[in-house]
Specification:
Layout (H helix, E strand, L loop, with lengths): L1 E2 L2 E2 L6 E6 L4 H10 L3 E6 L14 E2 L5 H10 L5 E6 L7 H6 L5 E5 L7 E2 L2 H8 L3 E8 L9 E8 L7 H24 L4 E2 L10 E2 L4 H4 L8 H10 L7 E5 L7 E9 L13 E4 L4 E3 L6 E8 L16 E2 L2 H9 L4 E2 L2 E2 L3
Parallel strand pairs: 3-4, 3-6, 4-5, 6-7, 8-12
Antiparallel strand pairs: 1-2, 2-11, 7-9, 9-10, 13-14, 13-18, 14-17, 15-16, 16-17, 19-20
Helix pairs in contact: 1-5, 4-7
C-alpha cells in the first residue's frame, strides 16, 4: 500500500508473480523461507517458457475469472503482486481498486533511461555494462511509476551475448529479491522516488526473426555487437550467402579480430580465410570477424561447407522490413502486422 509517499505491505502473507522467469523455482524457495505463499499467473504464450515442474495459472486477460481466482487464493491487502515481463495490461482503475496499489514491476535496466522491452539485446548493441535491479510501482503508463528500490551492478567482461547477460542478471536478482522481501516482512517502509518524465528513452520490443537481419555496411564494432545481440538464447542474426543453395542463414559465436590484413568497404561480408573451426570475414573497416557457427534452416552448423570467396549479404528488402516493422506481443504471442 501507499501512505505518506511510502510503500509497504502490512503482514505480507503471499506473493503473486505475473509473466515469466527462468528463476521462478529459486524465487519460490525464497518465499518459502519467509513462510510466504506463491502464485504464478501467466499468459498462454509465456506459459510455454516456464519450467515444467511449475504449474502456473493461465489467463488470457485479467477478467472477472481472474479476480475471482485471486480473491479465493489470498487477501489482497496482505499480498504483493509482482510483474516480471508480464504481457497483461494493467488498467488504472484495476491498479487502485483491485490490487490496492500492491502491484509492482521488477525492471532489469535503469529507469528512466531504459524503459521498454528487449533490454539485453539493446544493451549489447549499445555496449552497456551496467545491470539494474529496480522495483517500481505499476501505473497505466509503461515503466513510469515511482521507484521503490534499486541496486546497480556491473556485468563481467566475459558477458557478450544475451544468455550471459540474463544469467548474470538473475544472480543479482535473487540476492536483491531476498533482501527486498526480508525488509517487507520486517515492516520496512520504502520512500518512493520520482521517475522523472523529462528524462529517459524508450526501446521497443524486437524479434530476432524480424529485426535481426545483418547490415554488412555497419562498422566492425557495431556489426559485432549487433550479431551478439541476437545470439543465444535467441534465434540468431540472419543473412544470406552468395552461394544461394543454403538459403537464409543465422550467425552465432562471433569474435572481433584485428590480426589479419586491412579491408576495403567493398570487401565486407567476404570469407577471406577458412580455418576449419572458424572462418574469417571482412568488414568495411580495420577489423575482421571470426565466426564459429553458421546455422541453416535445419539448425545445423554448415561452417565446413562454406568456401573462401563466398560473400555474406542481406538484400535491402529484408533490412527495410526489419526497420519499418514494429513488434508487439499479446498474451497469445507475437502480433502479426
Amino acid at each position: 500500500m501507499i501512505k505518506n509517499n511510502q510503500f509497504f505491505i502490512k503482514n505480507l502473507k503471499s506473493i503473486s508473480f505475473f509473466g515469466e522467469s527462468t528463476v521462478f523455482n529459486e524465487l519460490i524457495k525464497i518465499n518459502e523461507k519467509f513462510n510466504i505463499k506463491t502464485e504464478i499467473i501467466t499468459s498462454p504464450d509465456q506459459s510455454k517458457n516456464i519450467k515444467k515442474n511449475i504449474k502456473p495459472k493461465i489467463f488470457k486477460s485479467l477478467d472477472s475469472k481472474f479476480k475471482t481466482y485471486i480473491r479465493k487464493k489470498c487477501k489482497i491487502e496482505n499480498t504483493l503482486f509482482i510483474s516480471m515481463g508480464s504481457r497483461f495490461i494493467f488498467k488504472k482503475d484495476m491498479i487502485k481498486n483491485f490490487f490496492q496499489n500492491n502491484l509492482v514491476n521488477f525492471h532489469g535496466t535503469r529507469l528512466p533511461m531504459d524503459s521498454g522491452g528487449a533490454p539485453y539485446s539493446w544493451m549489447i548493441m549499445r555496449e552497456d555494462k551496467i545491470d539494474a535491479q529496480l522495483i517500481h510501482l505499476i501505473t497505466s503508463k509503461i515503466d513510469s511509476g515511482p521507484i521503490i528500490d534499486y541496486e546497480l551492478n556491473l556485468f563481467s567482461k566475459s558477458c557478450k551475448i544475451p544468455i550471459e547477460y540474463i544469467n548474470s542478471h538473475n544472480e543479482f536478482l535473487l540476492k536483491f529479491y531476498e533482501k527486498f522481501i526480508y525488509n517487507l516482512t520486517k515492516g520496512k517502509k520504502f520512500n518512493l522516488k520520482n521517475n522523472p518524465g523529462y528524462l529517459g528513452r524508450y526501446s521497443p520490443r524486437i524479434d530476432s526473426k524480424i529485426n535481426g537481419f545483418i547490415n554488412w555496411e555497419l562498422n566492425p564494432n557495431d556489426l559485432f555487437c549487433f550479431i551478439n545481440a541476437f545470439d543465444d538464447p535467441y534465434y540468431g542474426a540472419s543473412t544470406f550467402l552468395s552461394n544461394k543453395k543454403f538459403g537464409k542463414l543465422r550467425i552465432k559465436k562471433v569474435h572481433l579480430h584485428g590480426g589479419d590484413s586491412s579491408n576495403h568497404p567493398y570487401m565486407s561480408g567476404i570469407i577471406t580465410r577458412h580455418d576449419k573451426k572458424w572462418i574469417v570475414v571482412s568488414t568495411i573497416g580495420k577489423y575482421m570477424l571470426l565466426i564459429e557457427e553458421i546455422l541453416d534452416k535445419n539448425n545445423k552448423n554448415i561452417l565446413s561447407k562454406l568456401k573462401v570467396g563466398d560473400r555474406f549479404f542481406t538484400p535491402q528488402k529484408y533490412l527495410d522490413k526489419s526497420l519499418y516493422t514494429r513488434v508487439f506481443y499479446s498474451t497469445s504471442g507475437l502480433k502479426k502486422n
